[in-house]
Design brief:
204 residues, alpha/beta, Rossmann fold, seven-stranded mixed β-sheet, 6 helices, globular
Length: 204
């Protein structure tokens, strides 16, 4: 772990480092935290503020939620299916010095009903595209129940995710945040792709 990664964990008084594939399978990918340098780019985009609520799918030990709530003052919610890793997220919540703490839920993403206040969604390839289809159906359902402008952020997106996203009628491609300069190798997947659910006003 680099000094930068160590510094942020130490500052926030949490432990989110390390890849963990103990309970991964064909549908649930290993835990791997988003690098802090990438989260810095996301927080600096201006697309997340204290007025927003961020849902982190496959939150793992909670890094994205802790960092984004600390930097942007947004409310964050993390959902995690792995009970053991979820327990570590709760330990981090107890130990952190951050005044705004993420909420964590132990649940499968495909069955989770999206709260109406959530208007930002974060993904770092947490599960298979089959589960992702069901998750997107839940997001779209919530969107139609309460239409609001929303942004979906996809770090290091897979080709399968991108291909599917391009078929969702409600979504519009918004922008991307390049991150390939942060790492060696110039990997084209080192980016955050951003899609938008456009807000609209009711005729009533």
């Amino acid at each position: 772990m680099t000094d930068h990664e160590t510094a942020w964990d130490k500052l926030l008084q949490i432990n989110t480092a390390g890849r963990d594939d103990k309970n991964s399978d064909e549908n649930h990918h290993p835990y791997e935290p988003t690098p802090y340098c990438v989260l810095e780019r996301l927080a600096g985009s201006g697309l997340i503020s204290q007025d927003d609520a961020v849902l982190d799918y496959g939150c793992g030990k909670g890094r994205a939620g802790f960092y984004l709530s600390y930097r942007t003052k947004a409310r964050t919610i993390g959902i995690e299916y792995d009970e053991r890793i979820y327990g570590i997220a709760l330990e981090n919540r107890r130990s952190t010095i951050s005044r705004i703490k993420p909420d964590f839920l132990l649940t499968g993403a495909e069955g989770y009903a999206v709260p109406p206040e959530v208007n930002r969604f974060y993904f770092f390839n947490p599960f298979s595209v089959e589960i992702f289809h069901k998750v997107m159906a839940r997001i779209i359902e919530s969107y139609y129940e309460l239409p609001r402008e929303a942004f979906l952020f996809f770090y290091y997106p897979s080709d399968e995710y991108i291909s599917y996203l391009m078929t969702v009628d409600e979504l519009e491609f918004y922008d991307e945040i390049e991150c390939d300069d942060l790492f060696e190798g110039q990997d084209p997947r080192e980016r955050i792709m951003i899609f938008q659910l456009p807000g609209f006003e009711s005729d009533l």
